Structures are given as C-alpha cells and as structure tokens.
C-alpha cells in the first residue's frame, strides 16, 4: 500500500494539475465573462495556436486537394509557434504538445495518402474521453466532481456526501460527456465517408467554440454549489 507521504504527494500533484487546467482556471474566477474564458483556454495566443493550423489545413486542402501540402502547412506553422515562444521567452510546452499532435496527424495522413487521417487522433481522443466520463458516472465518481473536489481543497473534500453537490457535479460531467459524444457522432461518419472538408469545418466549430461554452456552463454549475467565499452569508 502507498505510504501516507506518497498519497499526499500524489494528491498535491493532482491538485496542481487540476488548477493548471482550463477548468481550474475558470473555476477559480469569481466572475465569468469573455476575457476570463479566453484566458482559461490559453489567451489570444492559445486561441491562435488552436484554431489557425486547422483553418489553414482546410484552406490549403480546398485549394490544392494535395494531402502532402495541406498536411505539412500546419506542421510548419506549429514549428513557427515554438520558435516565436522561444524568442519571446514564453513557456514552450503548450506549443510543443500541439506540434507533436499535428506532427502525428500529418504523418498518418501522408503515410496513408488519406487527408481525413489528419483527424483520426482527435476522434480517438474524444472516444476515450467519452468512455472515461461515462464510466466515471456509472461508478458514481463523476470526473468533473473529482476535479472540482481537488480544486476546492477542504471545501470540496466531502462533495460526494452532499446530495446537491453530487447531483450538480454529476450533471456537469454529463455536460462534458455530451460534448465528446457530439463530436464523435458528427465526426466519425464524416471520417468513414472520407469527407475531409466536412471534418475540418466540424473541428473548427466543435473545438474551441463548443469547449468555451461548456467551460462557461460548468462554471455556472460549480458556482451554484461552491459560491465564492465573499458571497457566502456571514455566520450569525
């Protein structure tokens, strides 16, 4: 069995990871608005690095119908993002992780000669997230509740013992489940039909815009059961 020190270290690591996530940044806000959502998903730079590669792939593919060129353009752009971050002495981890994913998808598309394989990794990831969410709900350990519990520290330690908190955080987990399910339901048939342009458009619409909406609604749900300290009624 893990030693108490090991459990504490693991809990600290999980809490730190939760706080650094988009959900953690949004949940920590007392007020939610457009700028707060943008900041949570990486700011303007994060939006550019998330959206522009897919947009350029779509434009180049529609113009050229060339798998090689349309797949390499996002790779080149991802490398430029890394160089810019290094030059500006900004954290490069987000750009590197993005470049790795773009590189893998480009390799799959180029090696198979199928442009739609640029999207297979994203579809598989959404399937994995969908399964994880559903399993967590069946096991009565809804993932969003687990993350929020870590974020709230002692205040969120016993969230499963509070029927209202458990119900709301299960609902929030269903919300994320619906997002991943919607992506799979729309994108998988397009992939099977080799509808590359449709996949690119779906990724742009169901990516950052839908993610931002889900974050916003999640914040509303979390704040309904974990209000800011300043908003809690004073003890009589």
Walk me through this protein's architecture.
- The protein has 236 residues and is mainly alpha-helical.
- The protein has one domain (4-226).
- Helix content is 77%, strand content 0%.
Uncertain runs are 231-236
What is the share of helical residues? over 70%
Instruction: Tell me the radius of gyration.
Output: 20 Å
Number of β-strand runs: 0
Give the overall shape: globular
**Biggest pleated sheet:** none
Structural class: mainly alpha
Reading the helices and strands in chain order gives HHHHHHHHHHH
Which terms summarize this structure?
236 residues, 11 helices, mainly alpha, disordered C terminus, 77% helix
Blueprint of the fold:
Elements (H helix, E strand, L loop, with lengths): L3 H17 L1 H6 L6 H7 L2 H22 L2 H21 L5 H20 L7 H19 L4 H10 L10 H30 L3 H11 L1 H18 L11
Helix pairs in contact: 1-8, 3-4, 4-5, 4-6, 4-10, 5-6, 7-9, 8-9, 9-10, 9-11
In a few lines, what is going on in this structure?
This protein has helices spanning 4-20, 22-27, 34-40, 43-64, 67-87, 93-112, 120-138, 143-152, 163-192, 196-206, 208-225. By secondary structure, it is mainly alpha-helical.
């Amino acid at each position: 069995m893990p030693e108490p020190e090991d459990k504490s270290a693991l809990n600290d690591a999980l809490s730190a990871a939760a706080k650094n996530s988009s959900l953690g940044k949004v949940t920590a806000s007392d007020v939610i608005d457009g700028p707060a959502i943008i900041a949570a998903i990486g700011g303007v730079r994060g939006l550019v690095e998330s959206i522009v590669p897919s947009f350029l792939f779509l434009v180049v593919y529609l113009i050229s119908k060339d798998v090689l060129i349309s797949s390499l353009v996002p790779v080149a752009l991802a490398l430029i993002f890394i160089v810019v971050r290094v030059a500006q002495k900004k954290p490069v981890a987000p750009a590197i992780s993005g470049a790795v994913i773009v590189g893998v998808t480009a390799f799959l598309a180029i090696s198979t000669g199928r442009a739609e394989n640029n999207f297979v990794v994203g579809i598989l990831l959404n399937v994995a997230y969908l399964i994880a969410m559903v399993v967590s709900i069946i096991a009565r350990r809804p993932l969003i509740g687990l993350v929020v519990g870590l974020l709230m520290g002692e205040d969120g330690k016993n969230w499963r013992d509070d029927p209202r908190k458990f119900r709301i955080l299960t609902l929030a987990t269903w919300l994320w489940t619906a997002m991943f399910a919607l992506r799979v339901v729309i994108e998988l048939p397009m992939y099977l039909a080799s509808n590359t342009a449709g996949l690119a458009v779906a990724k742009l619409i169901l990516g950052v815009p839908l993610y931002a909406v889900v974050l916003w609604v999640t914040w509303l749900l979390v704040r309904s059961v974990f209000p800011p300290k300043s908003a809690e009624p004073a003890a009589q």
